[in-house]
Amino acid sequence: MEEQALQNRQSAGGGERTRYTLPVAGMTCASCVARVEKGLSRVAGVSSASVNLAAGSATVTVDPSRAGPAELAAAVRNTGYEVPVERTTFPVEGMTCASCVARVERALRKVPGVLAANVNLAARTGTVEYLSGAASSADFRAAVEGAGYSVPAVEPGEDPVARQERMQREEERRLLSRLRAGVVLGVPLLALSHWEMLVGYGSLAITPFGAAILQFLLATPIQFYAGSRYYRGAWTVARHGSTDMNTLVALGTSVAYFYSVVATFFPHWVAAEGLAVHLYYETSAAIIVLVLLGRYFEARARGKTSDAVKKLIGLAPKTARVVRNGGEIDVPIESVAVGDRVVVRPGEKIPVDGAVEEGRSAVDESMLTGEPIPAEKEPGAAVTGGTMNLNGRLVFTATRVGKETVLSRIVAMVREAQGSKPPIGRLADVIASYFVPAVMGVAGLTFLTWYFLGPEPRGTYALVNTIAVLIIACPCAMGLATPTSIMVATGKGAELGILIRDGAALETAQKVDTVVLDKTGTVTRGKPELGRVLPVQGGGLEGEAGERELLRLAASAESGSEHPLAEAVVRGAKEKGIGLASPEEFFSEPGKGIRATVDGRPVRAGNMSWLEEAGVSSEPLAALVAEIAGTGGTPVCVAVDGRAAGVLSVADEIKEGSVEAIRRLREMGLAVVMLTGDNPRTAESVAAKAGIGRVVAGVLPDRKAQEVRALQAEGKVVAMVGDGINDAPALAQADVGMAIGTGTDIAVESGDLVLMGGDLRGVAAAVSLSRATLRNIKQNLFWAFAYNVVLIPVAAGVLYPSFRLLLDPMFAAAAMGMSSVTVVSNALRLRGFRPPA
């Protein structure tokens, strides 16, 4: 709806009011309308709310100083309905520091209909969530340009990663071009300015004025060509009444350069002011060259933060071999369509997702799942694009292509996470918004203090120390401290088969102290197998024939159910060669059992309480149930014709690696809790084998979220680990939801983190990665803040009264350039992260 989510401003009752029209999805009746209207009316500042069921929209008049689109959308969601939101990511050029980030984010949030805006300095991107139909890319471009930055043109169909790499190369090329010019001109300038100091007084063959003119000629191209990016950046933000890092560099070097120009051509003016006639051409030139050198090193290092995403993209082959018109032909991977028959030979990569039709082979899926053991593929098995076919020829039907493949979804998810910002990252943004004006204030105070209170030559001291303060201040390191670590960590997680949804999840995971595990499919294999069949003595189904009849009746009744236990019973019966009848009057009660009529006989199967509800005596079953539960099996109680008939044992083996994973979690100081719908004795037996100390058994699916809430009420920070489908409410309730995936059918929407390999050891790896990342971010932030807190006073001359020490502006420039490189290099150390052994 193009007219949706638009806003009008009006004056009402003497105050400004804004009217928003929001799209609302999920409403079906008048009570839905009333519920949404009530929810919106409760928002502070809302004077009226009207919902239109036919149009699927809500029109709200609100005081913009008290609430905006984000608060209104949240109110609608709290009533159980959805506000359609669109999300877009675009490149942003011209940003150099954390204050730039804060400025662009503020501009984007002011666009009508924008719910959230996040700008990533390391990736040079902006990501905006906005109400459907409320804004366009042109609005975002205008907002960014209005803040003093630019949105470069995007080539049609260009991959975001390829675009970022192209922009990275262009930036490195621009920096290198200016850096070369600065070095070529700067080296002779530096030699000329210090010639007599190095060679001896009077050794220079030209007059002092001639030397000054020569320095002027060498320094001017450096100032206005090599340093042009700083002037452009400073002027752009100045036009909007703001400042950033470019302002500091441009101001500091300009003071040194123009002072030197005056001293060159009008030395009597300088002498009249009581200043020493000294030239600082080499100072301004060295500052520009050193800052450019730092920027170049930073750009090179920053490019490495997205290496993991490039590796993922590189997994997919460029072409695919498809069957068309009876023959095999190679086509670009973009030309493969759903339903195409694709041929993969041994040693080739699988191009897209699909289902095997012909052939058998082992497929190496380690690059996606982290699982080192190849997966066997046969007709009917699913294959994933980007994995390696090892030893057999496979023919499969393409089921997902293009952006819908698992690999493409993984790349998109990793990129989204890399562009996100954890709560700790907001600290740098807040400080950065005040940083540059504060530094300019300190520089002004430094000049006045040295000029009026300093020793002679006061003007020279004031000038040099003011330049040092302006140059050494580095908001860049603060802006890079968080995003570089997040980018490297999310990429490393993807390499390990851990997909991280956003930076907030990564930050929260390091606080986790309790891990809740769903039993079936998480701790255990999730594929139960039928064990013993135990008829009740005196139940009329004794002996071998009775056992087979008991199993036939139970399996026939269970054939209408999709529960894993039911499937195990049915599968077990078929393996024994027992023919099954179609059940009649089938009914299933989640968490309890089923009832059906088989060959005219009423059959009930499930737990003991399910049988007791129908008046069946559980006394004959109790001993058999205890015997099966004591060995870790799950008892399935069966009643036929209203009488207890027997118990079937279904066992779900503990998954390989679960015991080791739980040991690792305990060694990391985490409490481990297992949730299951099984009876307590079975659950305790499985927990004892797995090494889990706390068990909550008999939990129905709809109560899992309540159990997580109960743990949170105890003050625990809870991570819930489940299959991402049945456990969705509990995953959503937990502080961190970890969805167990299979690498081919990932429940991406279910958890904050997705463990693709299905291996429980990924939980320990995810928590360890989170801890390492937050430790890295804190190191970066400490360095960024400590650097500025310590060195700005030193540059201002605070050590001079006691130690006669001053900071040369050239050293200040080198320190400023290296501070950003240090932060990025420290973040890159995360590429060497290893999960706990």
Q: What radius of gyration results from the CA coordinates?
A: 34 Å
Strand content: 15-25%
Low-confidence stretches: 1-6, 9-14, 743-748
How far apart, in Å, are the first and last alpha carbons? 54 Å
Number of helices, counting only DSSP H or I runs of 4 residues or more: 30
Helix-strand category = alpha+beta
Number of strands: 29
Using the alpha-carbon principal axes, give the shape. elongated
Helix content: 40-55%
Main sheet?
A: 7 strands, mixed
Strand adjacency order, main sheet: 17-29-28-27-18-25-26
Query: What oligomeric state do these chains adopt?
Result: single chain
* Overall pLDDT metric: 84
Structural descriptors:
single chain, alpha+beta, 837 residues, elongated, six-stranded antiparallel β-sheet, disordered N terminus, seven-stranded mixed β-sheet, 30 helices, 29 strands, 19% strand
